[in-house]
Amino acid sequence: PQLKSTSANQSTSNKKISQYRIRLEEKQKLRFHYGITERQLLNYVRIARKAKGSTGEILLQLLEMRLDNIIFRLGMAPTIPGARQLVNHKHIIVNHRIVDIPSYRCKPQDFITIKNRQKSQDIITKNIDFNQKYKIPNHLTYNSLEKKGFVNQILDRKLIGLKINELLVVEYYSRQA
């Protein structure tokens, strides 16, 4: 019986991994990292296709400029789902307006602040103290005294710390979009 199990293991390990599987895995990595649905990712791919430039690079820029992701990168939340919850519960103000849509697309020169409620202030302060060890990306600045974040520019692909081949994601959607 021992010989059969090793030969079965060999046959599965010798199987060639299909191109479809490779593309699907890259797409799923991207989806799960940003915590977005299949439909949302498909819409971002369509927007990236219409824009001038590298579709894969633009796709990553669109995902990185989401409000929930920027709040996470600023250290205001411990995770992207945590940042999404802060936005949904109306703790976040962008350019002097309450924004409760996590997929809100931030632009350069946007100011991100916290609602002037004690509960909101406490949550963000606790998260920022906890996330102090992480470096804030160059495209963002955070003023800890005023508790304000600022979007300096659109993120460059080289600065995204993800080990994802975005071209495989674009190729995955090439049939659908």
From TrEMBL:
Domain Small ribosomal subunit protein uS4 N-terminal: 4-64
GO biological process: ribosomal small subunit biogenesis; translation
Localization in the cell: Plastid, Chloroplast
GO MF terms, alphabetically ordered: rRNA binding; structural constituent of ribosome
Keywords: Chloroplast, Plastid, Ribonucleoprotein, Ribosomal protein, RNA-binding, rRNA-binding
CC annotations in GO: chloroplast; small ribosomal subunit
Record InterPro entries: Ribosomal_uS4, Ribosomal_uS4_bac-type, Ribosomal_uS4_CS, Ribosomal_uS4_N, S4_RNA-bd, S4_RNA-bd_sf
Membrane-spanning parts: none
Main location: plastid
Entry annotated with the keyword Acetylation: no
Any one Pfam family match given in the protein's UniProt record, by short name: S4
Domain RNA-binding S4: 65-129
HAMAP family noted in UniProt: Ribosomal_uS4_B (MF_01306_B)
Family named by the database record: Belongs to the universal ribosomal protein uS4 family.
The protein's name: Small ribosomal subunit protein uS4c
Lineage: Eukaryota, Viridiplantae, Streptophyta, Embryophyta, Bryophyta
Encoding gene per record: rps4
